[in-house]
Amino acid sequence: MAPSPAAVAAAMPPAADPEREEEAEQQQTKWGAALEGLVVGSYCHDVLLRGGRVVGETLGGAAAFVSNVLDAASPPEASFAVVSKVGPDFAYASAPAPARHPSLLCPAPTTSFHARFSDAVASPAAHAPDRQLRRVHACDPIYPDDLPERRFAYGLAVGVAGEVLPETLERMIRLCRAVLVDAQALIRAFDADGGGGGAAVRHMALEGTPYARLLQRVAFLKASSEEAPYVGVETARRRCCVIVTEGRDGCRLYWEGGEARVAPFPAVQVDPTGAGDSYLAGFAVGLLWGLSATDAALLGNFFGAAAVSQVGVPTFHPKMLQAVKQILEDKAIQRSNPCINGATFTFQRSNMHDELHASLAGAARLMCELQTDPATDNNGADICSAQVPTSPSSAC
Ligand SMILES: Nc1ncnc2c1ncn2[C@@H]1O[C@H](COP(=O)(O)OP(=O)(O)O)[C@@H](O)[C@H]1O
Ligand SMILES: O=P([O-])([O-])O[C@@H]1[C@@H](O)[C@H](O)[C@@H](O)[C@H](O)[C@@H]1O
Question: Is 277 labeled as catalytic in the residue annotation?
């Protein structure tokens, strides 16, 4: 895929800061060719409630969903390290993601959330708020000194409970060639207990936080449509590429001078938890395979759809993964010089965007079929909404 000159966007992250430019130059050689990533954010316990009743207890935390997708779909030469903190009560140390990428152990209890899903029939709006979150426990923050002392091709800042401190994000920016950030790591505030147990999660304006000044050194900032007003898309897009996810409507990308809408994939939703996290990891996977940002967003949409199809951290069927990897092998691209490890990103869709969507839609259909195959145990009803689940044949 040879993007037209018009399709090649400005250098990312912007090199307006001379100190940063010099630092980047010095470090260029140290990054080398290795495609190692750094995922920063803690695993947590998720309790899913509906109508006052517990309907699920699962491993959670963006780091768990992200690791799951990166492990499944990164190109073979790519690897990553996870910096996460949990307490002695952590219940999922032997689950696949934490077993492969263990956490730092703290005396404080593991971060935990209660997610309350409405008992009303689900809203017809694709991106209406679907849950009320309360943070019940918060483990220790992740400090700059907790990060490994080496360079990474890319970093993912994926906190859920305020654990990625501003100084930790700053250190990530210094260590990583390109940093991708989930807005939920930056704009969550936790209101003291007003009854109901734990602290209600609300959002604050990004501009008023200490993270705002770091945005121009971030490559991509992802926000859900609920979070987008707090991010301030028009201001933020002048500093980095902003991605807004829109639930079952897919997503939009905004960069300085352009924007794109990227179509979704069908899914039978059983639990929306982890869609945004899996989206961000899918997007990173797309960049690792050498896709432009708008094409990589297809991988984001694909893994977002895969996440909502199962309760908790999804298990991907090997046949589905094989199909996705085959598509990426066939279509992608300049792996010897992947965008994520270079100085620039291409934002616009390539001329094979629609073809890539069609191929991935085939893999999404396979996922739906496998999900409803009685031989697999993934054919559950939607535990988090009173909406009658769309039948696989009509959704997929
Ligand atoms: N019901 C769905 N059907 C298909 N894809 C979905 C669905 N819900 C989410 N996704 C995918 O996951 C992405 C992230 O979901 P979204 O709900 O916007 O994020 P969050 O989990 O942060 O609220 C969407 O952009 C979309 O690609
Ligand atoms: O659903 P999503 O927005 O992608 O991400 C979720 C977080 O918002 C939530 O705090 C956490 O408990 C979940 O495990 C998951 O990480």
Answer: yes
